[in-house]
Every structure is written in structure tokens, then in C-alpha cells.
Amino acid sequence: MRTGNALGLTGPFLLFAGFTGIVTASEAAFQECISPSCRATYGVDETRVGCAACGSLLDVAYDWDRAQPPRDWELLQQKWSRRHDPLCFSGVWRFRELLPFAQPRHVVTVGEGQTLLQQAPAVAGYVRLNPDCLYLQYEGLNPSGSFKDNGMAAAFTHARSVGARRAACASTGNTSASLAMYCAVTRLMKAVIFIGSGKISYGKLSQALEFGALTIQIAGDFDDAMHRVQQVTRDLGIYLVNSVNPFRLEGQKTIMYRVLEALRWEVPDWIVVPGGNLGNSSAFGKAFQELKQLGLIERLPRLAVINAAGADTLYELFERRGLRWNGGQCDLAIACRYYDELDADRRKASTIASAIEINRPVNLTKCLRALEVCDGVVRRVSDQEILDAKAQVGAGGIGCEPASAASVAGARLLREEGVIAPSDRVVCILTGHQLKDPTATVAYHTTDQEQFNKVLGSRGVRRASFANRAVAVPNDLDAILKALQLYS
Ligand code: F0G
């Protein structure tokens, strides 16, 4: 049932327009090249996905003296109780003083960021952490079912501020679902999405189709779609909302603010996050660096980015080939050589965790910076490990999609290696909802060997050690009672 609220808007979706309260104005914000040897700056009224001078990625940066950020957590805490105010209800915009780039009249929210940090003692046992040490940040609770809504609220707001009429993305499914939703709810823009043919799960595809996005299926994978969407948006002047857009990452910083809020502003020891296009990891590093700069935290958590083994570019480059941010003197020839090898071998990303089936992450350099800032590590986990971890998370009552469970599988691996200690406080980010990709879940729990082989066996998954199999019985009361007796 939809409920009214004090502003006369109806939920669950709230579109904010014409807010007259206090949001720090955008004069204090600008865009800045991430390369320390360039540092070119651009206004926030410009639409760019890279530095015009050197081609590096851009940050949204702030003159904090002018922006007047909060000096303690009290102000942010107070907002929590003002649920009737759409900008305080939003899990993104109630932290707006920490991402003060938007003019009040442009801000858009659909009620994103009502997410949960759940202590998970049973899953902690699986990860081999002390029972009170594992927390799951459940971003599947967002309106479109994934963390993307955090970033989309911010990018969409920026798109609105520059008068965009069309917005586009390449996607493994969640970005497109989120963009299509913001377009459908607000009617401010038309969504154009580029997806690899057969590469996104039905849960996500169904969202984009039903929300009315113009859906372009490319005969290729995400990396191909990403390449094409950048060409098309440049040539046609369409607003690009992929995480190469720095405003997206401003919204994704708030995932970390909510984690800290739930932990009463105590910094955990580890943040563990799946790595695909590397937007989250980049945003998290930026969030913590800024909080430290503002004196809101005293230390930074360590960051662990987890690749799927079948899409492990970051792992290969960081852990095997020694690529580092190196204070901005990043030896990108190492990455270029690796990409040439991928091309020469015609190697494509391949994992059951389709959300992170990405070989050419657009935020590579920003992620390397985050790894440096947060003393990070990178690991890779197999599809078998991902699905087993997902089943354990599900058995604890939280449904996540395969890519999300990479974080839990990665935390387990890091515990086994002794990199994470049993008493470390660990937060795993569950990036998307279980219902996004029921095919993988049902195949894991199935009794039908053929289906198992088709969906999972082909990916090297051999066992379903934590399967909860359905019991097949004839339509006969005695047989049903017998089955109940036997299995309960
Ligand atoms: N988990 C889920 C559920 C995702 O959808 C994605 C990315 C990631 C993790 C990886 O996050 O890019 O910040 O490292 N999905 C994008 C998409 C690429 O198109 O929906 P990242």
C-alpha cells in the first residue's frame, strides 16, 4: 500500500523538485583531473568523462572551506529522524553536505539508500570470523534492487542540472535497471541502454524493458558495449551515466557513510567489495580520504576488492604484475600490455557473476588510488566459491546475487590466508538483490542434473554443498505426509 507523507507526495517513490532548504551551493564544487601532474579543473556545469588536457579520469572536488562541511556527525545524525523530508529520507541526500555539488532545485531522489547493515553471526562462522565480527551491507534493498541507485541519484541530478534529455549507459544489468527506473519515475529523460546480447540476467533485463528504456543489444559483451556507448554518447551529445562519470561516484560514497552511521561512526577494520568496473571501490576510497581530511574519522579501514576468477584484470594487474597508483605515477603501459594479450588470445571475461563479467574496468586508475589510500588488497574467487558463499548468505536470510557474494567468498579467502584476523571487524558489501538473477540460484539448488550442468557445470562449478533441494512427491496425501516425516 502506498502511504502519504507530510509533503503530500506518495511513496514509495518520492520525486524531489523545488526544494528550498539548505544545500550547500555548487560554487564550492568543481571537477578535477586525478593526475597529480595535470590537475586541470572544470566547472560542475560541464559534462565530461575525462580530462581534456591529459585524458585521465576526473574527480568531483570541493573547496571545503567554502562548502562548510559538518565538523562532527551530530548534524548528519539529526537528519535521520526527519523522515517526512525527501532529502533527509534519501540515504544519499541526507549526507548532502559531504557531496555538495548540486543546486537544490536540481536534486532528484526516488527514496534510494534505505539499506541495512546486518550483523551476520552464521555467515561469520563460514568466513571463520568471530561471530560478532562480520557485517553485511545489504544494498539489494535499494528501489531498483542494487547499489547503483546511490550513484544514479547523484548522476541523474547532475544530468538534470545540465539539461540532459537523454541518458545512456552500458551495463551488465544493474546500471541499466537503475537508469531506466529514474527515467520512468521522473519522466525527465529517456533512457538508452547498451547491453551485451545474452549477457544480462532476466531479472535485470525485465526491469529495463518494463521501465521503458530504449534497449540496444550488442553482439558482444560488456566491454564492447562500454566502448560503443562512449562513442555514441560523445557523437550524439547524450549524457553518460556509467561510473566513468565522476558524479556517479559521489552518490556511491554514501554507502560508506551509512556503514559508519550503523557502526556509530566507528571505522571497521575491513571493507570487502566485489570489483567489476571498479566504481564502488574508487568511491569508497574517496569517501574515506575526504572524511579523514575533514577530521570526521581518525583512521581508514583496509579495502579488499574481489574479482571473479573469470574476470580478474585488477587482480592480475595489481597482485601479479605490480601495477600501483604510485602517487599518481601509474605505469599504465603494464595495463596496455595486458589488454593487448587479452586481445591477442581473444580472451573474454566469463563468470556466473554476470554483474562483474568485465575485463576492462573503466575506473582502474581511481581504484589503484583507493587501494593505495586504504592499504588495499585484491583477490580472485572461483564461481564455485561465489555460489557456495551466496548459499551461506541466503541461509542467513539475506538474498544476494552472485556478484555480491564474491565479497563474502573473498573475505573467507583472506581469513584463510591470515590477512584478515578472526577478531577483525569486517564489512562485506552485498551489492545486488537475489531476485536479480534467480537462474543461478535455482540451478544451484536443483535436483535436475541437466540444468545444473547447463547453467553451472559449464562454469566449472562441480558441487552444490549447501543446496536446499526441493522434495518431489506424487499428488497423494500419504506420500506427502511420509515426505514431511522423513525430511523434517
Ligand atoms: N555487484 C553488482 C551487483 C553489480 O551490478 C556491479 C556492477 C558490481 C558489483 C561491480 O561494481 O563496477 O563498482 O566494481 N555492475 C555494473 C552494471 C557494471 O552495469 O550494472 P563496480
What does this 3D model show about the protein?
By secondary structure, the chain is of the alpha/beta class. It is 39% helix and 13% strand. The protein has a six-stranded mixed β-sheet, sandwiched between helices. It has a four-stranded parallel β-sheet with strand order 8-7-6-9, sandwiched between helices. Helix 10 (279-293) packs across helix 13 (364-373) and helix 14 (383-395) crosses helix 15 (402-416). Residues 1-25 have low confidence and may be disordered. Bound molecules: ligand F0G. Ligand F0G binds at residues 146, 148, 171-175, 243, 274-280, 355-356, 401, 403-404, 431-432. Ligand F0G is lined by residues 146, 148, 171-175, 243, 274-280, 355-356, 401, 403-404, 431-432.
Anisotropy-based shape: globular
Number of beta strands: 13
Instruction: Please bin the fraction of helical residues.
Output: 25-40%
Measured by DSSP, the beta-strand proportion falls in 5-15%
Radius of gyration: 22 Å
Low-confidence stretches: 1-25
**Major sheet description:** 6 strands, mixed
Distance between the termini: 36 Å
**Attached small molecules:** ligand F0G
With strands numbered from the N-terminus, the spatial order across the biggest sheet is: 4-5-13-10-11-12
Query: How large is the count of helical segments?
Result: 18
Helix and strand content put the structural class at alpha/beta
Rounded mean pLDDT score: 93
